[in-house]
Design a protein that fits this description.
40% helix, 2 domains, four-stranded parallel sheet, 13% strand, 308 residues, arginine biosynthesis, Rossmann fold, alpha/beta, Ornithine carbamoyltransferase, 12 helices
Length: 308
């Protein structure tokens, strides 16, 4: 495993084999099959979050505790970043205090600026471009539900957002067929779609379309996310109109495979992008998926901090 000391800013920062190793370690940690050695000194993870968080913040904190380490909250409004200190200067200073930085921000360019100046691993804990830590949990969950990821068919229904981007790239690397269905003005970034299609190397298909029924037909996993992400609240009413017909309800799920599972990265707006019936139904693996954030983060940190 070769992730020691590296940054994790997006899905493509790991090869297909590294993704498989990461998922294998996460699963082994969850099952109690792997015990990591106690580090010689206490490792510290800095959490620099410009956006609210429940699952990402708590899973990182618990993951570090289970690795014998600590987390330190570094909210921008309580640091000099909030008063105009440059990202480069901040990254250089924080690198001398902590062993890794998990950053939740808006612009992917800011993450890249932190990584360029940092001498410790920088982790994308969510940006407007990607949410790579989320898809570790997503594919760990699918591994627990199906014997083999390769050749699996997944549908994603909703906004072509950061989660959709990371799903496209990870599915392509892992050989998972992915159909993304969005309203016409809300598709994923075409450049990300092209990158995913290149990464697939003919092992799987990556398709963007606008018919949620067609996307779900025969799919073994159906994924959705909120229609208005953080920072888009002002457009929520318009988005609800534009996404009419994209709610993952029993009628839409009926087009999927009989053994299909339902995924959602949470938080959920019940009755909008997903019905309460489906979220709480027998096909739902949503809260298993949320639980798996912990094991995905723990495995990632163990690899980046060379604790394996």
């Amino acid at each position: 495993m070769t992730l020691s000391g590296r940054h994790f800013l997006g899905v493509e920062d790991c090869s297909c084999q590294e993704w498989l190793d990461l998922l294998q370690l996460a699963g082994a940690l969850k099952r109690g099959e792997t015990r990591l050695p106690t580090p010689g000194s206490v490792k510290v993870l800095g959490l620099l979050f410009s956006k609210p968080s429940t699952r990402t913040r708590v899973s990182f904190a618990v993951a570090m505790a289970r690795l014998g380490g600590q987390t330190m909250d570094l909210p921008p409004d309580s640091t000099q970043v909030g008063r105009g200190e440059s990202i480069a200067d901040t990254a250089r200073v924080l690198s001398s205090y902590v062993d890794a930085l998990a950053i939740r921000t808006f612009a992917q360019n800011d993450l890249e600026a932190y990584a360029q100046a940092s001498t410790v691993p920088v982790i994308n804990a969510l940006s407007d471009a990607e949410h790579p830590c989320q898809v570790i949990a997503d594919f760990l969950t699918l591994q627990e539900c199906f014997p083999d990821l390769n050749g699996l068919t997944m549908a994603y229904v909703g906004d072509g957002n950061n989660v959709a981007h990371s799903l496209l790239l990870a599915a392509a690397l892992l050989g998972v067929h992915l159909r993304v269905a969005t309203p016409r003005r809300y598709g994923p970034d075409p450049a990300v779609v092209q990158r995913a299609q290149r990464l697939s190397q003919g092992r799987c298909t990556v398709t963007v379309l606008h018919d949620p029924v067609e996307a779900c037909r025969g799919a073994q996993a159906v994924y959705t996310d909120v229609w208005s992400s953080m920072g888009q609240e002002a457009a929520a009413q318009q988005r609800r109109r534009d996404f009419s017909g994209y709610c993952l309800n029993a009628g839409l799920l009926a087009h999927a495979a009989p053994d299909a599972v339902v995924l959602h990265c949470l938080p959920a707006h019940r009755g909008e992008e997903i019905s309460n019936e489906v979220l709480e139904g027998s096909a739902s693996r949503v809260f298993l998926q949320a639980e798996n954030r912990l094991y995905g983060q723990q495995a990632l940190l163990a690899l980046l901090l060379d604790l394996v």
